[in-house]
Amino acid sequence: MTDKQRNAPARPKTRHSSGVTHVNEPHHDNFTVVGNHLAQHPEMSLVAIGLALHIQSLPEGTPIGIKALAAKFPEGEIRIAAALRELEEHGYLARPRERLQSGQMTTRTISYNKPRLAVAAAAPAVPEPAAPPKAPAPPGKATELLAGLRAHDSRLLLTERDVHRLAPAVSEWLERGVPSTAVVRILTTGLPKDPIKHPAAFLHHRLTAQLPPHLPSSAPAPVRERPCPLQTCDGCDRAFRAPHPGRCRDCRTSSVAVA
C-alpha cells in the first residue's frame, strides 16, 4: 500500500471547490495556437468554433469543401454548411469566387486566425474629432455600391464591417455630384495583377487619394438694370422714358432748332 500511494500521481492543486481545473503541459510540436476570441466566441455555435479550430490546424492547400468535411465528421453536410456560413459572417473564413485562365469559375477558401472583427474589438477606442454634420447620401446607396464590387472582381470581396466603414467615404463622392457608376468605374478599373491582400485598405486609398473637389457654386445671375420710368413730355404730352420729368428728345431737338 505504501508503494502504491508513493507512485500515485499528485492531484492538481486548486483554490476552487467547483468548476473546471486545468492541468496544463507545454506542447513542443504538433500544436495550433488559437485565440480566446475564437475559443470563447459569445455568438458562434460550438460546431462553428470547433470547425474553425480544425481548419486552422490543417496544412496549406488542404481541401475543406462541405463534402470533404462531411466525410471526416458525423455532423453532416447541412450542419457543416451552416457552420461555414457562421465563420464567414464573423470574419474567420472567406470563400471568394475567382475565374481561372481557362475561363472556369472556382472557389478559393481563406482562413483568418485573427479576423478584423477581433482586432477591432481588442484595439482601444480612439475618439475622433467632431466633424460638422453632412447631408446623408440616399439610403443604402453607398453600402449597396461597395457590396456589389465583388461582382466586378472577386478580389474586392468585403466583410460587412468593411462595407459600413467605407460607406462614409463613398457617400462623400456621391454628395460631391459624382454618379455611382463613375465611382464604381474608378474603384474597379486599373486594378493590380497581383492578389489584393487587403481590399478594404486598397479601396480606402483610392477613395481618399482620388476624391474630387466640390462642384463650384453657380455664379450669381447678373443684375439687370431697371429701365427709366415713363415720363409725360411737357411739350407734346407723349410718353417717353427718362430719369426725370421734362421734354422728349423730339421736342428738345425742335427747341434747339428754333433757337
Question: Any chance you could write out the topology, listing elements then pairs?
Answer:
Elements lengths: L1 H6 L28 H4 L6 H12 L8 H5 L6 H13 L3 E2 L2 E3 L5 E3 L2 E2 L4 H7 L18 H7 L12 H16 L4 H9 L10 H11 L20 E3 L6 E3 L7 H10 L1
Antiparallel strand pairs: 1-4, 2-3, 5-6
- Described by the principal axes of the CA atoms, the overall outline is elongated
Q: N-to-C terminal Cα separation, in Å?
A: 156 Å
How much beta, percentage-wise?
5-15%
Which regions contain 5 or more consecutive residues with pLDDT less than 50?
none
Helicity range: 25-40%
For the biggest β-sheet, the strand order reads: 1-4
Number of helices: 11
Q: How confident overall, as mean pLDDT?
A: 80
Q: What gyration radius follows from the Cα positions, in whole Å? A: 38 Å
How many runs of DSSP E, i.e. beta strands? 6
| CATH topology-level name of the domain at 36-116 | Arc Repressor Mutant, subunit A
Name of the CATH architecture of the domain at 36-116: Orthogonal Bundle
- What's the CATH C level of the domain at 36-116? Mainly Alpha
- The ordered string of helix (H) and strand (E) elements is HHHHHEEEEHHHHHEEH
Largest sheet: 2 strands, antiparallel
* Alpha-beta content class: mainly alpha
Structural notes for this entry:
Among the domains are: 36-116, Arc Repressor Mutant, subunit A (Orthogonal Bundle); 136-209, no CATH class. It has 259 residues and is mainly alpha-helical. The mean pLDDT is 80. The protein is built from eleven helices and six strands. Helix 3 (46-57) packs across helix 5 (77-89) and helix 7 (141-147) packs across helix 8 (160-175). The radius of gyration is 38 Å and the shape is elongated. The strands form three sheets. It has a two-stranded antiparallel sheet. It has a two-stranded antiparallel ribbon with strand order 2-3. Strands 5-6 form a two-stranded antiparallel ribbon.
